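Hello Y.,

Per our agreement to keep a running log of every chain we model this quarter, I'm adding this entry. I've kept the format consistent with earlier entries: sequence first, then predicted structure.
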Amino acid sequence: MPHLTSTDKHSFKENGCLIVRGALTSAQIQAAQDALWTGIDADRDDHATWIEAGPRTPVPAHHPAIHATVHESPLFAMMEEMVGEGQLNPNSAGPALVYPSKDKTWSLPERGHLDGYYTPTNGVPEGTVGYMTINVTIYVEDIDSQGGCFTYWPGSHNVAYEYFKTHSLLSVQGGVSSDVFAEGTFPQGCEFVGKAGDAIFWHGQLFHTGSKNVNRNIRMALIGRFSRKDTNDIRFETCDDQWAHWEGIS
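Predicted structure for the entry above:
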C-alpha cells in the first residue's frame, strides 16, 4: 500500500519539499538518541554542558540505530514512491547536530545553498559536483523555532532548474544562491520546526541551509542524501521535463 498520496506528490513537485510527521516509532527515536549520546561530549542530564559541545557527528551513519531511521521506517519507501522503485542508491542519513549557542542573538538565514559543490572545508573535490536526487532531514529530538532548524526555500528547485537550462552545473561556485538568484530577489526562507520522528524530504536542487541554535535542546538531526543509480549518466542533463527521472511523479 502506498505511503504517499497524489496530493503529497503534487506538493513535493510544487514546493520541492514534503514534510512527514511521525515517520519514526518511539522505539526508533529512543534508539537513535541513545546512540548519539554515546558520542556527545556532554552530560546527558546536565543541560548546561550541552552549550557549544560537540561533535557535530557523534556516531557514523552506519550505526544500526541511525541506519534504521531510513531503512526500517517508511522513509526510504516514500522516496522510492517518488523517484522509482529500485532507482536510488541505498544510502543512510548521518548525524548533523547543532548545539546550543552561548550567544542568544538570532536571525533567519538570508541565503541558502545547493549541496555537492566544493568549498575549502566540505571535502568535495574542487572542479567536481555531487548530484543528489532527493534528500531527507530527520529530527530525533523536538526542535522549535530558533533551535537550529533546517531552513529551506520552497520552490527554489524550480528556479535552479530554469538556471541550469542555460548554465553549466559547475557554474555555481560553492553552491551559493547568489549565482542563481538575481541580487535582491532571494525570498525569505522557512524553518522546519518539528517533533522527534518528523522528517522533511527535499529536492536535490532545493536551496537550504542550517541555522543557529539559541534554544535549550541540541538540534538532533539526521541528514541523508540519495542519488539515482544512473547518476553518472544523467548528472549533466537538464531535461525538457523537469521530472523525467522521477517515475512516481512524472
